[in-house]
Design goal:
Strand content: 15-25%
Shape: elongated
Distance between the termini: 185 Å
Structural class: alpha+beta
Number of helices: 15
Number of strands: 15
Strand order of the largest sheet: 8-7-10-5-14
Radius of gyration: 46 Å
CATH topology of one domain: Tetrahydropterin Synthase, Chain A
Largest sheet: 5 strands, antiparallel
Helix content: 40-55%
Order of helices and strands: EEHEEEHEEEEHHEEEEHEHHEHHHHHHHH
């Protein structure tokens, strides 16, 4: 039986990872099939194989540091850094932090973001992996936006001393762990097994579902990652199961209660006891929230189903890492655009083969991946709930994705469909509003046209009235002037021919006679 090269734990033939420390194991091949190569190239090849799952050099020549599903921490060695060439920078995924550690101490941190190099890092054939890695780190921190003067001085000093260093990538957010009985191997945690607590009268089967978070980074790294390059939630469950069981055993060994279910008061005491144990025995790992403590048989079956989704076996972890790397390659702008433009199965397969030129995925995995991508495309293009359900039924029948991913696809498809419906409704509302606006505009234009016509008519009538009044006044002035002229003429005539006064008197007397 083979042994792990890091911790000397016996491993089974064909095993991909060490179940104790998480070291990736390289399968031995017959010597006649092994090409001869210099020691330097062999070291680089090992580093590239070991780090390829979590450190991906994208087509844009950026090295992508991330934490895969089911993982909590990942150690990046200098050999892995030296395996990449022509790198232009580093991308640290959101929700993770990279800690640069020199001689067991953290000297710098890289939070989520993009870090461009001052100049492209060119992998040379000269020098060892450590020197290349230090060149890599020096180039990185010359362009780190928030690098302090102390950080840069510490890096230069360590470069001069050629001190050993590693990069530890830790997840920042809380992660779930199912705590039950301690099991023989890490793979056994895929099927949940409750811990047995002896109470005063009978044995109690208990399961704990809690959200954990790394609180003391230095203590966590020093305890969990000194002899382990990869840490998963299953490793955490294996480490803390005994302390949790011992604490609950001490709490419940003399307790008694009526009925088969745990009273709420005892559940609260159990939570308090677990939180108390966590401070001393979890080595920097804290409990963000205890979701559930159960001793019910029906809940145990639910815990078993959860464990199958949360804890990954060696084969699943290996497949997940390779497919995640394949997905990372597809996220490159050029690859993503070409895949999106592939309208037929043959075009899609041709683009996938270009990405898989180093045979990262086997033929059967490529076919499955192609089916999954095609199904996801049809799921995105589904216009109705019936079309969406038909595609989901086909995905279930073919078993293309795991149950947890299937539920995620269902949620995403439902969200996209609801978004399309909301967009259509919004566009319809906009269209109706536009029609109303156009109708109101036409009504307003008609009203304004009528108003303008009425105003023109009133102005015309006013002009006509003004002309009429002017003509009438002119005639009236002429008539008055004519009358005045006649009166003046009469007065002039009378003034020119006056009548004698005696004649008038005689005429008067004669008339009286």
């Amino acid at each position: 039986m083979d042994k792990c090269p890091r911790c000397n734990t016996p491993v089974k033939p064909g095993q991909k990872f060490c179940t104790k420390c998480g070291e990736r194991l390289v399968e031995a091949k017959p010597e006649q099939n092994q090409p001869s190569q210099p020691a330097e190239n062999a070291e680089e090849a090992h580093g590239r194989q070991q780090g390829s799952a979590d450190i991906v050099q994208t087509s844009s020549q950026h090295i992508y540091w991330t934490i895969q599903q089911g993982q909590i921490a990942r150690v990046v060695t200098p050999q892995e850094l030296a395996a990449y060439k022509d790198a232009k920078g580093v991308i640290v995924s959101e929700g993770t932090t990279a800690y640069v550690r020199v001689d067991g101490k953290t000297v710098a941190t890289l939070s989520g973001g993009v870090y461009e190099f001052k100049q492209a890092f060119v992998k040379t054939q000269d020098g060892n992996a450590m020197q290349k890695a230090w060149e890599f780190m020096s180039n990185l921190f010359e362009r780190k936006p928030d690098a302090t003067e102390e950080e840069q001085k510490a890096l230069i000093m360590n470069l001069q001393k050629a001190a050993a260093f590693t990069i530890v990538i830790l997840v920042d957010k809380a992660f779930p762990v199912l705590v039950g009985a301690k099991q023989a191997t890490i793979d056994d945690y895929k099927t949940f097994k409750p811990m047995v607590i002896k109470t005063k009268y009978y044995d109690l089967q208990v399961g704990v579902n809690a959200m954990f978070q790394i609180q003391d980074k230095e203590r966590f790294i020093n305890h969990y990652l000194t002899a382990c390059n990869l840490l998963t939630t299953a490793h955490i469950a294996d480490t803390i199961s005994d302390p949790v069981r011992a604490a609950l055993q001490q709490l419940l060994e003399t307790r008694e209660w009526d009925g088969s279910s745990l009273p709420q008061e005892i559940r609260r005491e159990m939570k308090d006891e677990i939180n108390k144990v966590a401070q001393d025995l979890f080595f920097g790992l804290g409990i963000a929230r205890i979701v559930e403590i159960t001793a019910d048989s029906t809940d145990m079956e639910r815990f078993r189903n959860l464990s199958r989704e949360m804890y990954l076996s060696e084969q699943e972890l290996d497949y997940l890492q390779r497919t995640n790397e394949f997905r990372n390659r597809m996220t490159a702008v050029q690859n993503a655009q070409q895949i999106a433009e592939a309208r037929s199965e043959s075009e899609l397969r041709a683009e996938l083969d270009k990405i898989n030129k180093d045979n990262l995925l086997r033929e059967d995995e490529m076919q499955q991946f192609q089916l999954m991508l095609d199904s996801q495309r049809r799921l995105r293009e589904a216009r109705t709930k019936e079309e969406e359900d038909a595609v989901m039924a086909e995905i279930r029948r073919q078993g293309l994705v795991r149950d947890i991913d299937l539920r995620r696809l269902e949620q995403e498809a439902d969200l996209e469909r609801r978004q399309r419906e909301a967009d259509f409704e919004f566009q319809e509302q906009q269209r109706q509003e536009q029609l109303k606006m156009e109708r109101r505009q036409k009504e307003f234009e008609m009203f304004m046209s009528m108003e303008n016509a009425n105003r023109e008519h009133e102005l015309e009538m006013a002009r006509l009235h003004a002309d009429t009044d002017k003509e009438w006044n002119e005639r009236l002035r002429e008539q008055q002037q004519h009358q005045n002229d006649q009166m003046m003429e009469l007065l002039r005539t009378m003034a020119a021919h006056p009548q004698p006064a005696n004649n008038n008197t005689n005429n008067t007397n004669n008339g009286n006679n």
